[in-house]
């Protein structure tokens, strides 16, 4: 029997390969799809929160956001006179790309679980959450 870490790694690779190819086809680079998903539809938040929720280093998020801003997917702004933090929200273009990615995510979820019953799908999510909590302390 294959080890858990190896199976999780192989599964992640297969899913991410699919997601990255679809994202590239619609003009997105790695990191952008999960940020689009996080901000969709109308979340306004700061870079630190995006980094924490998307599991990306804060400095890396900064460069991803800069590229997204250049493409017109997001806008950055100051909120409530807070001069220290820039907030981020999706533009109309960004919402459109987010919707395209949500379809990609849904399709890969469906493809990945097509051999499972509804109960097995639920159980997989419960078990993965338990594994994540055991390793991270929270998920």
Percent of sequence in beta strands: 5-15%
Percent helix among the residues?
A: 55-70%
Rg, Cα atoms, Å: 17 Å
- Structure summary, number of beta strands: 3
* Order of secondary-structure elements: HHEHHEEHH
Q: What would you call the structural class?
A: mainly alpha
What does this protein look like?
It is globular and about 55 Å long. By secondary structure, the protein is mainly alpha-helical. A 3-stranded antiparallel beta sheet has the order 1-3-2. The model has no long low-confidence stretch (mean pLDDT 95).
How do you describe this structure in short?
This protein has 139 residues and is mainly alpha-helical. Helices cover 65% and strands 7% of the residues.
List the helices and strands and how they pair.
Layout: H1 4-25, H2 32-39, E1 45-46, H3 47-54, H4 58-70, E2 74-77, E3 87-90, H5 92-112, H6 118-136
Antiparallel strand pairs: 1-3, 2-3
Helix pairs in contact: 1-5, 2-5, 3-4
Features:
mainly alpha, globular, 3-stranded antiparallel sheet, 139 residues, 6 helices
